[in-house]
Specification:
The strands form two sheets. An eight-stranded mixed sheet has the order 3-2-1-4-5-6-14-15, sandwiched between helices. It has two domains: 175 residues, NAD(P)-binding Rossmann-like Domain (Rossmann fold), CATH 3.40.50; 173 residues, Rossmann fold. Helix content is 33%, strand content 17%. The protein is α/β, with parallel strands linked by helices and 362 residues long. The mean pLDDT is 96.
Length: 362
Amino acid sequence: MEIGVPKETKDQEFRVGLSPSSVRALTEQGHAVFVEANAGSGAGFSDEDYIQAGATIVTEAKAAWNRDLVVKVKEPLEPEYEFLQKGQMLFTYLHLAADRRLTEHLLNSGAIAIAYETVELPDKRLPLLAPMSVIAGRLSVQFGARYLERQQGGRGVLLGGIPGVKPGKVVILGGGVVGTEAARIAVGMGAQVTILDISVDRLSYLESILGSRVELLHSSTAQIEAVVPEADLLVGAVLVLAQKAPVLVSRELVKQMRTGSVIVDVAVDQGGCIETVRPTSHSHPTYLEEGVVHYGVPNMPGAVPWTATQALNNSTLPYVLKLANFGLAALDKDPVLAKGLNVQNNHLIHPAVQQVFPDLVG
């Protein structure tokens, strides 16, 4: 099979769909891989690395896109819509619930869109979302600590405090992978940490791994209203599979936060769980709203592409190999991979995405 790896076009997105080691695994099985020039340079992989792995370097994006299977990291942006082709398989993060325009273009193109974030194991775990969620969770506190610095517009709070001065307070909405990893870093910094989650079972699990170092609260409107105004750093870590994130924090509640507090909403790629958050970029990551610093970069792991590309490939490669070896039949052979199918034959396939766009179902 011919497999294309375009260079990512999202602002400062330096990850790449396939690492040289993944390319080698594919070429050793007889597949032809076409990598756009400099696609991996931002992650530390040179064109020569790909050539040594058996890839062909192409100089134009169209030449990478014009293949049976296209492997990316982020969703196609508008300049790439013209490359979508009927019957072509696209394997990448899509997050369609937050992007009606992309959804419509995928439907019209006739392409077969398989989303990393909806590949789902029988126990409901999301194996291709998890590695990036780990990174995003850890970065959320790392970035939050930075933007709390006065020079960055923040309150001037050191999350860990020092003897004689109390630590900063971190409030995390959601105790999934992102929230858990955010808590690990915040605790490591010495911050005072609170996690809210709607699942009592999840809270019990978090107690078993985090112990008494973290305050664990059952999430409710009243509880959110009680803890958010006291947060120096508020992390949105809510995930609803293939759907827009619910808005848990209203503008009125944001107004009650102290001037110079920081919000990092990791759920922004699914619409965000905080009313005042909007997507930003690595070039312009923050803005001030209601006196609070907001960080809304939807591709946070792109900040650490060397780590993130390898972490992603560790999880995606087995599925890429199945698609390369069996084509669409791979979806019949592997029900986990089949859960990733979002668009096929000009139809919206995934039930959760259908719920978001019922008028596009037909």
